[in-house]
Amino acid sequence: MEVTGLKARQEAVFDRKRLTTGTVVAVARLIKKRRKVMNMVLHVSGNPV
């Protein structure tokens, strides 16, 4: 009984870590994409990047 509880707790922690990692990756991708767009906009408008 104790073992299953421990396993469930580990799985819950793993799910939370995976969710956090996924969120961080998504945010990083969003920032990278936005930075690329900003660089293009600045480049087109003639401002030095």
From TrEMBL:
UniProt protein name: Uncharacterized protein
UniProt source species: Cucumis sativus (Cucumber)
